[in-house]
Specification:
By secondary structure, this protein is of the alpha/beta class. It is built from eleven helices and seven strands. It has a seven-stranded mixed sheet, sandwiched between helices.
Length: 254
């Protein structure tokens, strides 16, 4: 079971788009996926048709709840979801002074039956607080979606520092599966230059897949559909299928 956190502290980088659509394309490739929506904004949950206002995920962090009790089936074959809710925003304050709070999600995931899922994807909040640290401590791998804009590079450097701190202090086995260029407009010189800078600075950490700017990707969440449902022949669907194939191909190297 591969546990992958999809993380970037910058909003609008493509975390939720990647979490939802990578789940769908991995499932299409016959992989079993558990998606954990760790963002209090609950964008992944709403996208997949869940509008729960329950305290289930909040109770996972602050009480004795277990993951098995709050896993939901989705309309997508082979994809299960741990839905988020706005109550989760209170977890940051509730856990602020708890010793070992950064290990809660890791302990909950470790209690799962490993053969139930091939992948656990964690959609992280756009902030480097206790929830994101929980994700980085629980995960074995990280995907970092990065918008191909020069300002996004500055945030990436800060994020990598945090990842190195977590790796040094909490999770020595944490690895970067890849930096994923998103919202790529191949018609512009700027996108090409940013990708060139990414490769220059981070070399083999940059994934081969490019998620192109695509109107179908932008519209899909409005219709509560994955890109495979909303535009199965679109560039967005093609790109996320390529990403799933690239991630699956890494299994041979693990």
């Amino acid at each position: 079971m591969r546990i992958i956190a999809v993380v970037n502290q910058k909003g609008g980088s493509g975390k939720t788009t990647t979490s939802v659509n990578l789940s769908a394309t991995l499932a299409e490739a016959k992989k079993k996926v558990l998606l954990i929506d760790l963002d209090p904004q609950a964008s992944s949950s709403v996208w997949l048709g869940f509008k729960s206002h329950s305290k289930n995920l909040y109770d996972l962090f602050t009480g004795g709840n277990i993951l098995n009790n709050i896993i939901e089936k989705t309309k997508i074959n082979n994809v299960n979801l741990v839905p988020s809710s706005s109550f989760l925003a209170g977890a940051e304050k509730a856990l602020a002074n708890d010793v070992g709070a950064e290990n809660i999600l890791k302990e909950k995931i470790n209690a799962l039956q490993k053969n139930n899922w091939d992948y656990v994807l964690i959609d992280c909040p756009p902030a480097l607080g206790i929830l994101s640290i929980n994700a980085l401590t629980a995960a074995s791998e990280i995907i970092i979606p990065v918008e191909t804009h020069v300002m996004a590079l500055h945030g990436l450097v800060q994020l990598l520092r945090t990842i190195n701190l977590v790796k040094g202090r909490l999770n020595p086995n944490l690895a970067i599966t890849g930096i994923l260029p998103c919202r790529v407009d191949l018609r512009t010189k700027h996108s090409h230059e940013v990708i060139k800078q990414l490769i220059s600075r981070f070399e083999n950490r940059v994934l081969a897949t490019r998620i192109r700017e695509n109107i179908k990707l932008a519209e899909a969440p409005l219709h509560r559909k994955t890109i495979l449902e909303y535009g199965k022949n679109s560039h967005g669907a093609e790109d996320y299928r390529l990403l799933a194939n690239e991630i699956i191909a890494q299994e041979k190297k693990l």
